[in-house]
Amino acid sequence: MNRIRKAIFAVAGISLLTVGLSACGETEQEEKYTSPNFITETVKPGEKYTGKTTEEPEVQPAGLSEGEPVNKSDVDLSSETLVGAYDGNTYYNSLAGFAVTVDGSLWHLYDAAGVARATGQTEDDVNNQWYGVVSPYSLKTTTCAIAYDADTGTNLIVSYVNPKLYYMQNMTAREYLEMSASKYTNAEVIDYDYLGETWSCLTVDEAQEGVGKRVQFAIRKSDLIVLLTYTLQGDDLLEDAASHVTRLVAG
Q: Are 54 and 48 in contact (CB under 8 A)?
């Protein structure tokens, strides 16, 4: 369990924008904000810059198998808030349209107390987010769910980032990941057809991340950036970890 917590502690600070976690009772200082530059065009002398490039990135198939979609009409989502809802071994997120189902033997979902310990919050902080007492629009980051493999420490963190509170209200999911990618060598953002929509994806190898290979999918929904962050330990594969995520559809 210590190995799992160590990996989650490290990966929960998943970007330049994520609030630092606490360790040993002390809160890490948030990195100094630097204004990003997303200009991808060259402006000639005397010309006026009119905006970012209009060229759309190519969307590639994610290459990940998906289970049968879950119909919303088949599950009780009456208690769901903006950050999702739990029902036994399944976490539902209608905002981004997916469900995370674990087997309950090797893979588990952290409860509020577990998420609090892993992210340096109090249990009340987490419950206030989950039950809608505190809105994700009033927070810079929100931890919605953490699933993990108790055997290897591979994990999945579902979280939100609110760009408005970072004074970057119009930031896209791709731009968010490009900002994170700038910290690494040869890291690039690729757009994938994933869970029936276009998600941007950043992969960082273990040598640069230090706590395992990290694969982060991002999509913008309702002015929030939704993140699926996988941290893969040892020989664990993304295909196996992602098999716990399925589409949540109307039906």
A: no
